[in-house]
Amino acid sequence: MKVKIKEWHAVATWRWDMPEDEVCGICRVDFDGCCPNCKYPGDDCPLIVGKCHHSFHLHCILSWINQESAKGLCPMCRQKFEVAA
Ligand SMILES: [Zn+2]
Ligand SMILES: [Zn+2]
Ligand SMILES: [Zn+2]
């Protein structure tokens, strides 16, 4: 059987607009770890993904959003931060 993989690249090159995929944009700790306020990664320190496709530790984005100066915007792209369903 002969299979030609010609269309492969169109799919493979697609990526999110994220410079560093695996780290929280706020605390810069990678998603295998927890935010600076928690001791253990996992259910106690969940990750949250916004509609803009940026992801953060829940605790990090909460403390960010609670700052007056944040104005409810994503710290990475400055769009309104809404949690992706
Ligand atoms: Zn974080
Ligand atoms: Zn945490
Ligand atoms: Zn964003």
UniProtKB/TrEMBL annotation:
GO terms for biological process: anaphase-promoting complex-dependent catabolic process; cell division; protein ubiquitination. Residues 35-78 form the RING-type domain. The keyword Mitochondrion does not apply. One of its GO terms (molecular function) is ubiquitin protein ligase activity. Gene3D superfamilies: Zinc/RING finger domain, C3HC4 (zinc finger). One of its GO terms (cellular component) is anaphase-promoting complex. Signal peptide: none annotated. Pathway: Protein modification; protein ubiquitination. Its main location: nucleus. This is Anaphase-promoting complex subunit 11. The gene is APC11.
